[in-house]
Amino acid sequence: MLEKLQDWDRRLFVFLNNLGIERYDSFWIFVTDPRHWIPLYILFFALFFIAYHWKKAVFTSLFLLASVFTTWGFTNLVKGFFTRLRPNNNPDLSDLIRVLQEPTNYSFFSGHSSTSFCATTFVVLALREKYPWIFIAYLWPIIFVLSRIYVGVHYPGDILVGMIVGISFAFLFYRIYLKSGRRLY
């Protein structure tokens, strides 16, 4: 069963990766770099400070950071356990895919996916009552993780599992945040 899932994952990856158009390569390379999203990260924190008094904004920001860094650490722990080769490092796929980046660490599961969905979900949970439009923030992780397939470094399964893990950690940390915050406010 696992082999069949991995085969479907590889086939879907090859199909999606080959939808890439060379003319858009520079866009996807730009999108996949977390540093290029720094203005969005700053906006998330600024929204906390606009929505809440400074103590609650700092408290919320610290919980956001804790959720993302915990997710990132868990992701790296799992990658070290499963040691799944990235598509760009898989010799069986080298003639079938377009590779725009060549990281050498492991693939399962996507850190871009887990951390971006964790951050976005936590921000949405924390701000949905103040800003009903905050759900559009999910455009970021969707575009961000699609870039990982486009540049040839993650299978769709890596992204899907990363998304589930990130959202789960966000809900967990948000529940802890709510319980902890009751004592402060």
Automatic annotation (TrEMBL):
SUPFAM superfamilies assigned to the protein according to its UniProt record, in alphabetical order? Acid phosphatase/Vanadium-dependent haloperoxidase
Alphabetized CDD domains for the sequence: PAP2_like_4
State the Gene Ontology terms under molecular function.
sphingosine-1-phosphate phosphatase activity
Alphabetized InterPro entries for the sequence: PAP2/HPO, PAP2/HPO_sf
Family annotation (SMART domains)? acidPPc
Can you name this protein? Putative membrane-associated phospholipid phosphatase
